[in-house]
Amino acid sequence: MSKDAAHIVLARMGSTRLPGKALLPLGNTVLLGLTIARLRQTKHVDRIILATTDSDRDDPLADFAEQQGIECFRGNWRDVAGRCLACATQFRLNWFVRICGDSPFIDPAVVDLVCEKYLDDRPDVATNVHPRTYPIGCSAEVVETAALRRLCATTKDIRYREHVTAFFYENEEIFSIENVAVPDNRYEGVSIAVDTPADYERARWVYNHLSDPLTAPVEEIVETSERWGGKDDKKLV
């Protein structure tokens, strides 16, 4: 396990399409709880830090992090790049894995592949979204803290500060980027993230139909998700 790295999980309660989604029930846990439980199974990083905002509205997330036994960092709600950099600096991380908190079906094996790409080649960013061949909701980005510091020093544009890695991908001439991809288009247009009420209902159904929600790989999750339609089984957990 790398001692200078962590998973930084980004979450806040103020989602416009699905407010409070991070703490919505999902099986015997909550959405964010499943994200954390699946990240605990990765091989290269064992530290998990929740990076939320300094808004009072996100106090329940800080409390949840404490209940989960993970560290918590609080920063600006909109300057997500700045929040990640401040978090990485405070916890003395040389690199981190950026994970969205609305990804309860993140695949630990896929995260490991991206980490291995970073550890082998040491780029500024190792990713599986440039270009994206994995489903939305199975995204992992390893970011070198020094590279993020350069990004934050280079641009104050809120479009880039809010979306963290977009500036990297648009400026490959000054940042080194390595991508991990599947060899075909099997996941084209597929999302297993939770962003809307319909996504949440699907996630509840999928959770209930997986062989094991804690260990199911992305292949099984996508296959199960494709069977959801609200017709053949109304049972939810």
Could you walk me through the main structural features you see in this protein, from its secondary elements to its overall organization?
- It contains nine helices and nine strands.
- The protein has 237 residues and is an alpha/beta fold.
- The strands form two sheets. A seven-stranded mixed β-sheet has the order 5-4-1-6-8-7-9, sandwiched between helices. A two-stranded antiparallel ribbon has the order 2-3.
- Strand 2 and strand 3 form a beta hairpin.
- The chain is globular and about 45 Å long.
- Residues 231-237 have low confidence and may be disordered.
What keywords describe this structure?
9 helices, 16% strand, 237 residues, Cytidylyl_trans, Nucleotide-diphossugar_trans, 37% helix, two-stranded antiparallel ribbon, seven-stranded mixed beta sheet, 9 strands, globular
Which CATH-level-2 architecture? Alpha-Beta Complex
> Which band does the percent of strand residues land in?
15-25%
The radius of gyration computed from the alpha-carbon positions, rounded to a whole number of angstroms, is 17 Å
What does the main sheet amount to? Answer: 7 strands, mixed
- Compute the number of helices: 9
Q: Give the termini distance in whole angstroms.
A: 34 Å
Order of helices and strands: EEEHEHEHEHEEHHHEHH
| Count of beta strands | 9
- Topology-level CATH name: Spore Coat Polysaccharide Biosynthesis Protein SpsA, Chain A
Secondary structure category: alpha/beta
What is the subunit organization of this protein? single chain
